[in-house]
Amino acid sequence: MKYRIFTLLFISLLSFSYGQEGLPIYQDYLTGSWYLIHPSAAGAASTEQVRITGRTQWFDVDDAPTLFTASLNTRITKNIGVGGIAFSDTNGNFSQNGFYGTFAYHLNLNARAFELNQLSFGLSLGILQRRLDERSLFNPRVADPAITGDVLSEGYFNADFGMSYFKGNLFIFATLKNVLPVDRSSLVLESDTEPDDQKTFIATGGYTFSISREFDLEPSVMFVTIPELNEQLADINLKGYYKLNETSKLFGGLSYRLNFDGVETTEDNVSIDLQRFGSISPFFGVDYKSFVFAYTYTNQLDDVKISSSGFHQITLGYNFKGKRNLRDGLRECNCPAFK
User: Fold this and answer.
1) pTM to 2 decimals?
2) pLDDT at residue 325, as a whole number
3) 255: closest CA among 208, 219, 226?
4) How many helices (H) and strands (E) does the chain have?
């Protein structure tokens, strides 16, 4: 029985634990929000981008995790991009809010302009606050020194650094999140067993294949590792784009996420199985002129899970196509991830 209870807690936490030292890592990047996880994407595209996302888990579970983000990134000179991200991440009595500001530098490696060949670097500095509301947990009839009945909060700084490379239809991102160690002995929300250093490495790569004049197919992968916590996961993605006309297109696809770590579970208190967290996320969206709309549904594939209602995410966006310092030839590349 204790294994089953531990598994339920493990899965509920693991589903949003990656990136909890800062902005959580979900499938936002597949619906046009690369900048949310890769700082080098700030100003990398051929448009100025505004994105708002909302994600909720388990409609039938009270106080289930929710996440809201608002971001803007743009190119302000030929080589310099900037961006900003605000987010609110809530899970029951625990919440985390933060803001990241980003500086990016984009270097065109081509002497001629008719092929995209861009190397980018990005640095994000963040200010974050964690908050634990213990008021509903306090019971005056039961003395518990671990529960004060107050609202506990703590603020801290951190930074992310990354680089990316675009070559024609090929794109590669590499990002190191949580560069700065956090002294957890002063954080009221952390135990002494959690390491101060929680650097997270994210690598993403993909290629866009032109199937026809109207249809493109884009396989990609993402790998995430947190060495100090010995945690690793991978996304395997397939995304398609269908061009409706010169200003609009449909897109959609499927993402499979696998966690390489497991937890021991038992149903009969005799045999022990190793269960790994896995999920599948279909998504679809439309780019209509300058507007972007996308929906992502995530379903857990585990035998033991808290709810079968899944996770739901909405992405709304707008692409400003003002004056740019990019050369015209770069705008004509068949590279939807760049645009």
Assistant:
1) 0.82
2) 46
3) 219
4) 2, 15
